[in-house]
Each structure stands twice: as C-alpha cells, then as structure tokens.
Amino acid sequence: MVMVQLAADLRAEGDELHALLDNLSEADWQRPTPFKDWTVDYVMQHLLFGDWLNTLSLTDPEAFSAVMAQRKAARAEGRKAMGLEYTGLELGQGPELLHHWHDRLHKLCDLFADADPKTRMKWVGPDMSVRSAATARLMETWAHGQDVYDMLRRPRVPTDRIRNIATLGVNTYGWSFQNRGLEPPGPAPHVSLTAPSGATWTWNQGDPDNRIEGSALDFCHVVTQGRNIDEVDLQVTGETARQWMAIAQCFAGVPESPPPSGTRGW
Question: CA quadruple 40, 77, 179, 229: dihedral positive or negative?
C-alpha cells in the first residue's frame, strides 16, 4: 500500500504543476526561474529527463547503464549533456513539452504503484530503493514547481503530500554534511513540524537542546534550498541544528548553497 499512496501523491503533485503551466504564456515559458536562472522550459526538460531515467531504470536497467556511460563520456569531453538527446523523443517546447512530461509522469506513477518499495534500482549515484526513487521524484516535482510559483509570484496552497519531502529532508541530515566533506557535528536534531492540515509530525528523539520546530512547509523550503533559513518561521535550537539548517540539501549532486536571505521568501 505504501507505493500505491506514494505514487498517488506524485501523480497529484504532477497534476498540480500541469494545471499551473497549462495556461502559461509563450513568454513565461522562456523566463528564468529563481533556481539557477533555469527557464520554465529547461525546468520541465529536467523533470522529464528524470522521470524518463526512472522509467528506464525500472524497465531496462542495461539500457539505463548504457545511457549513463554515454552521458559520462560526453561530459568528460567537455560537452554539455543533460541526457534528453538519448531519449529519442520529439519533445518540442512549451505546451508540447508539458504534454510529453505529464503523460510520461503518469506512466511512471503506474510503474511505481505496482513495484515493491524495497526493490533496488540503478541510479545516477548509488543504487536506491524504489520507495526512495519515488520520493525523490515527488520532491523534485514539488521543488521545481515552487520555482515556477516563485517566478510568477503566485501563492501556493500546501498539502500534506509534503510529508514525503519532510521525511526525505530529515533522512538526509548526514548527507548534507558528507556531501561537503564534513562529519555531522552531532546526533540528528529532533524535528517537530506542523503539517498543512494542522497535524504534528515528529522525527528523531526529543532533545530540548538540539531541535527544529515550526512549519512543515518552511522546513521543506529549506531542505530543498528554495528558502534561506533566515527568511522562514522555524525555531532552530542548538549548534548542530543551526549548522544543518545552514547547508541542508535533500537532493543528490554537488553541494549547493541556499539562496541569499530575501531573494526567495517573498
């Protein structure tokens, strides 16, 4: 049942982003978002490629490994290669790209819903479980969707689907330091968050001297690096918790820095 619910959450997150973009103007598709100045068009290429890679890993692991080898070789030669050139898809731009992405996301959700959550699958970094892969896709869809909301300066109504992202954020406490060549400074802080529904979500043992409390939405903004810790309403207690929130990163890849305070928390 866990994968059925997780796939349903990912599908709903994708449907929300599709609804936001469905009436986007041609000019807006080419506007830079606050995330690395990626245009909306490039954001959607990135999401589509990630979904396509997950599908390939689930259905044809050998083909996945071949694509990764080609991509690595291209980058070693100094060629910029996201990887879309290996998909064989006629992607187009704007609405056409949106249609391709939405259709393929739903097919990926069908695969996730039928999968064993503990099954290991190949990925760009170390192999991971199907459950982790689906959670990562939900996080990416939500976080890059937020990039578009922020670009448009539109409010967004949060849902309890973000619990998946909050859990990922908590689970990547150690990774946030190790990815920078650092040792975690102490035990993972106690995290107590208020969900959009008003429920309370908690992780790790209670510790009055090492804890993070407040809005689950704000926590998700910080761990996906959509907001600086100084511009959200989180109570951070203890040096370990403060160090973590300054560099928290729940996504794979090279170490990234959060946006400067005041640039995204409008």
Answer: negative
Which residue blocks in the chain are alpha helix, DSSP H?
2-21, 26-29, 40-59, 61-76, 94-114, 130-152, 163-171, 173-178, 216-223, 239-247
What domains does the chain contain, in order, with CATH numbers?
2-156 (1.20.120.450), 163-247 (3.30.1050)
pTM here is 0.94
Say which DSSP state 264 is in. Answer: S
Token pair, residue 122, equals: 């190949």
121 neighbors 57 (Cβ within 8 angstroms): yes
Q: Which residues contact 99 (CB under 8 A, 6 or more apart)?
A: none
Question: CA angle, corner 138, sides to 156 and 119, nearest 5?
Answer: 165
- Give the model confidence (pLDDT) of 208-229 as tens digits: 999 999 999 999 999 999 999 9
The Cα–Cα gap between 55 and 49 comes to 10
